[in-house]
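Exercise: predict the structure of this protein bound to flavin-adenine dinucleotide.
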Amino acid sequence: MNQPEAADPVPVSNSPDPTPERPLYDVLVVGAGIAGLSLAAAAARQGRSVLLVAARDTHPREFRAEKFSASEMAILDGCGLGVGARAVSTPLHTVIEGRWGRLIKRMASQEFAFHYPELVDAARAALPTAVTSVTGRISAAETGAETQTLTLADGRRYTGRLLVVATGLGEGLQRELGFERRLVSQGNTLVYGFNTAFSYALLAGEQLIWSAEAGGDGVAYLTLFPLGTQIRANLFTYWPRGGTAAEAFLADPAGTMRRLMPGLARTYGTVEPVGAIQQRPIDLVEITDPVRDGVVVIGDAFCTTCPAYGTGIRKALSDVTVLASLLPAWFATPGMDAAKIGSYYAHPEKLAADQRSVGVSLRLRRMAMGRDLVSRFLNLRSTVYRRGQQAVVDAAAKLRRGTHGASATNP
Ligand SMILES: Cc1cc2nc3c(=O)[nH]c(=O)nc-3n(C[C@H](O)[C@H](O)[C@H](O)COP(=O)(O)OP(=O)(O)OC[C@H]3O[C@@H](n4cnc5c(N)ncnc54)[C@H](O)[C@@H]3O)c2cc1C
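Solution:
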């Protein structure tokens, strides 16, 4: 469990810390999302003293990632947070893939479905006691090659050797520290999440991933999966928020999905949303020039990716794994200068994970919008296939009609 604030070893007072130059913690982590929690837990497991600063006592009830794979759960297991995460997750064992308007594949695939705020709160409750948690708003941050200091709005001050910024999309601390964010792709993805009228039995333990049937319509795919007792739907699109396609979907979600995915409707029936439809536009942003003394930026705070291909949590946890692997060497020698910090951003695993996620995000968007040669070819192939399939269906129907007609005249 979290250490309660009462057990906080730092004096809680409005007066300045009398010995601010003495690092009290090895690691100060700001942000209690999946990245900050995992890093705090991983560092504590290495024997580091860790202070976690959260903005709130619980994660806001917002729409975020709702699935990840067994490899992400294995990383949480490695930090000691897996038991908590599993307790609020629905295990999925099979993925069924629909493409070009028909089922094409069914294969074993271990994943977990969850509501992100519940996942994060459960992980937070499972933090080791070696992590001291405090909740508050940071009013000032000073960083350097030896010591980092955070001051909260109520005057509490905390010092540490390393500051880890895991604040997701929150920009306040980044601005305070002088980081600049570059907008890579504004309104890159528009994601919808909703419960459906399907019964749980339809997909017990299985998830369906149904790709857009017509190319160039700005849809990536729809995924249906059991979450708790519901069949949940996530629709990933590249529509501009408030644009014609987005408005048409909100006005008639079931009809729009039937029109965009007629093969899905034929196979499973109409996808009828139940209750509120959550929607979230996502910008792709990244930090420019991140290397500086004493501070590391991880997870969405470093860069965001298109959620359609499940690279957000994977990339956040990959940041955690890379950083955790460097900590023993960093703490074995004095100081926390930019040379140490730079080795994190230059780590081959980090570079590969970043390139993969951002590259995939932009390429798949281009494909869904039908904006490059490869996607035009794939879209054409899909159209030819669909038209061919329809011609076969029509011919078979004509044949049946002909046969029935013949038998009617030949008693
Ligand atoms: C709609 C949607 C769907 C998505 N779907 C997927 C998906 O299917 N698969 C996938 O892998 N990824 C998906 N993602 C992305 C994924 O959710 C993120 O990549 C991941 O949650 C990032 O985790 P994080 O810890 O870096 O940031 P966050 O989870 O945002 O955590 C940051 C934390 O820092 C706190 N904070 C901010 N500022 C401060 C401050 N100054 N002081 C203290 N605390 C602060 C915030 O309150 C928050 O608790 C999706 C995202 C969205 C929006």
